[in-house]
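Re-run with default settings, no changes from the original entry. Doing this only to confirm the output is reproducible before filing.
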Amino acid sequence: MELYRVLLVDDEEDIRVGISRKMDWASLGFALVGEAENGRDALELAEALEPDVVLTDIKMPFMDGLELCRILTERLPASKFVVFSGFDEFEYAKQAIRMNVSEYILKPINATELGTVLQKLKEQLDRERTQRQNVELLRTRYEETLPVLRELYYTHLLEGRIPPGQEEERAARLDIDLSGQAWVAALVYMDASPTRELRTLSVQQLLEENLNLDGCCSKVFLYGDSVAVLTSFQNLASVYEYIGVMNRVCSLAESYLGLTITVGVGTPCTELAGLPQSAEGARSALDYRRMVGAGRAIYIGDLEPDTGARLTFDENDERELSAAVKLGGEAEVRDEVDRLMARLHASGLPLAQCGLFFLELLTCLLKLTRGANLSPEEVFGIGFTGAVQVTDFASPEALGAWCLERCLRIQSSIRRQHTDTAGKTVERAKSYISEHYGQSDLSVERLCGYLHLSAAYFSTLFKRETGMSFTAYVTVVRMDAAAELLRNTEEKTYLIAQRCGYEDPNYFSYAFKRHFGMTPTKFRAG
């Protein structure tokens, strides 16, 4: 098993040497990966090493151990902290507890005591690691959330949020039986009520208990603030028997619950990918309740016989295409366009009858164009007026190729903008550091407040763009400025330290020597 990483921090070298040599780190399950003689150095090391355990003295120059623990608790929340001190004072212990410190040890440090502490920490770290990795625990949690995952699956299925061809695979993973020759979606409508939640659960139970029809299997689930039913048929002719059963449930709701419910039933489809269209038909059927009467099942096939031939580009299509363009790669965009064109093919409609579908698709592309701050000409070509029509294309393949090219143009522009934005953000950060490095309170939090970014996002972005952490970069800027002042002025060292953001001239000299390999005095003399 991988050893846990330890960072040791103490300003007394003999203590660091003693601890590092006395402890049999490997046998305890640890590896000593770094040492520091003060809190500031330790903070910089911790950013790079990400230790599992930090052993630190309290009393140290430049930054004490409690301040170090306070900062690292925020930056490395999974790490454990052990502090030791030569001062048997209750106030230190109270502060240590507030800093999420695991153990508090008094000096002189006893190897046996420290070994016992490390053993306890290893057990705690092992438990936490096991909890994260324990397959049985994950399986148990999965089983506990399975009902929720199934309802989410049904919802996504009705809303077309599952990629075509993956419906059965995902159903199998959730142990859902959707076998059949046809499928239909039904939606329940109830008037608003202060007790709507209880009424909804009552209707759900009533449907589950009474949807008993040979050759049919129904899944009843909460959908929005109402109830939906997804039914598979072994025989397509069963749909009218199914509507009869739905009418009976509506009557039972009136008798048993005192509720008037209306059920909209969509047109059956022979592919699971057609369920969003069936659900849309169910919604349309509910729109007719004022005309044909509430308290019954309304079948859209009776009112709009050609409803199965409708093709729409809905909100889910817009969401999926927009996400592929903005967040995905070229492969994701191609897959999404292919999915849309597959639906167009499956409808069996000639292109001339897909005008609304194309108009809504074009509107989505125009929204993406505007959102990317592009002119229509950059995406659609010079002279574009918006007058393009679906009949301008010879085939669905030609339409798909045209759509793909526009999407990729928008995606390419968005990527360039993101790259440019990241570069500009880092340049703004560098400029801010250049202007404020002389202020001792310069921090990543203060800089992020100026940039209006989260510290976590900025730190990742800055390191990716510069190859350095914020702290390391500021140190380089300050050291370069100090070197320039030492070369070209006669100012005293403590004044140069202040001008470069160091309130403590001793720490400035220490940091300077660590950076350049010599003291400021020798640097100036040389």
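The chain has four domains: 4-133, 146-308, 315-417, 437-525. The mean pLDDT is 87.
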